Amino acid sequence: MNVHLRTFGCRANQYDSETVRAMLAAAGASVVDEAADADVAVFNSCAVTAEAEADLRKAVRRAARERPALRTVIMGCASALPRAATDPARLDALPGVEALVPGADMLALARALDLPPDAAAAVAAVQRGARALLRVQDGCDEHCTFCATTIARGANRSRPMATLLDEAERLAERHAELVLTGVHIGTYGRDAGTSLGALLEALVHRVPHARFRLSSVEATEVDARLAALLRDAAGHVCPYLHAPLQSGSDRLLRRMGRHWYTADAYAASVERLVDGRAVFGLGADVIAGFPGETEDDHAATLALVERLPFAALHVFPYSPRPGTAATRLPDPVAPAVAQRRAGELRALARAKGDAYAASRVGGAADVVVIGEGARRSGMTEDYLTVTLADASRPRGARAPARLALLDGRLTAVAVA
């Protein structure tokens, strides 16, 4: 059986797709690049924005046109959202769709693909990316009013630490960097009497030759144990934190259901972690145009972004998602206004990112080679993408380098 596999969305989805690849290999099936060459297509869906779901729908329709006999299964977050039987947006109404598999239910996917049940237990020992992904948990116990992921993924569920240590050891045989991912990884261990910091300590001890990176952690969930690793475990833990902000307005944070921090609490957590560090990559997510957002709220977000040492931002205009509480909030923001505010935030983010990159010129870096062919580049420990002065280094290689500005581009220059 030939299977076309396509992934939309976050690193948690990308990890799940790697597990699907391992399952297919265990069952003797082959993954093909083109839908036209496949017997079955598996689309791993995202529900974060309407745009992500629209992209999924286009891809499913295009695959059905390319191969009318194609059987299609949709898994992931969008497939898990509840929809009325009469809803024209039902995914199982798309051409060729035979089954919807909620989230990352591998046993259900094996049944949908007519694979033996034991194939669902397969775990990838090597992944397609230069940097490997390690999903440490699934689900989220919070209820942000804009987020459909909690609806799709359910409550927090931590994977056993022993399982993760074994998997990390196998992945580190082929990958120099392992990225810890999930839906809400800062809550890892709350259901098992442990913590993300304890897991990271154990990973560093078990696999000391790998470098570990956290994908996304709430700023106020970085406890002293985790902060010490981020600040002081050079060569083992990347000095990098992507801490979702969403808004710099406390009023908006309350409307978003993000009750566990204020703008000042977020800033204090970040400043405690980053202050005094010449090398520390700080990123965040920000939503522009959330229902009820005023110009004053937007100005508060701009001011907080300007104040904090961000190296990058992911900025999203608000996207209403079916079933979320935010769709019932009054005072929607006009799309043109949301786009303008997003543009202002992105411009500020570019300026701050450029300033941070400039501050790294002449400094040392720990570089992993990523990408293929003309897209080959390097990824530093603080999440800067750099040009490689030595293009002969193989994908996945890790080496110390010095950062220089060559032909206007931040470049990793090999050191002896």
Instruction: Using the coordinates above, name the CATH class of the largest domain.
Output: Alpha Beta
Put simply, the count of helices is 12
* N-to-C span: 49 Å
Class from helix and strand fractions: alpha/beta
What does this structure look like?
With 416 residues, this protein is of the alpha/beta class. It folds into four domains: 2-121, Methylthiotransferase, N-terminal domain (Rossmann fold, 3-Layer(aba) Sandwich); 125-238, Transcription Regulator spoIIAA; 265-359, Transcription Regulator spoIIAA; 364-414. The chain is built from twelve helices and 18 strands. The chain has helices spanning 11-26, 50-66, 77-80, 106-112, 149-153, 161-171, 196-206, 224-232, 250-255, 263-274, 295-307, 335-359; strands at 2-7, 30-32, 40-45, 71-76, 97-100, 132-135, 137-138, 157-158, 177-181, 211-214, 240-242, 281-288, 312-317, 364-370, 377-379, 385-388, 398-406, 409-414. The strands form five sheets. It has a five-stranded parallel beta sheet, sandwiched between helices. A five-stranded mixed barrel has the order 14-15-16-18-17. A three-stranded parallel beta sheet has the order 6-9-10. α6 crosses α7 (196-206) and α7 (196-206) packs parallel to α8 (224-232). It is globular, with a radius of gyration of 22 Å. It comes from Roseisolibacter agri. This is tRNA (N(6)-L-threonylcarbamoyladenosine(37)-C(2))-methylthiotransferase MtaB.
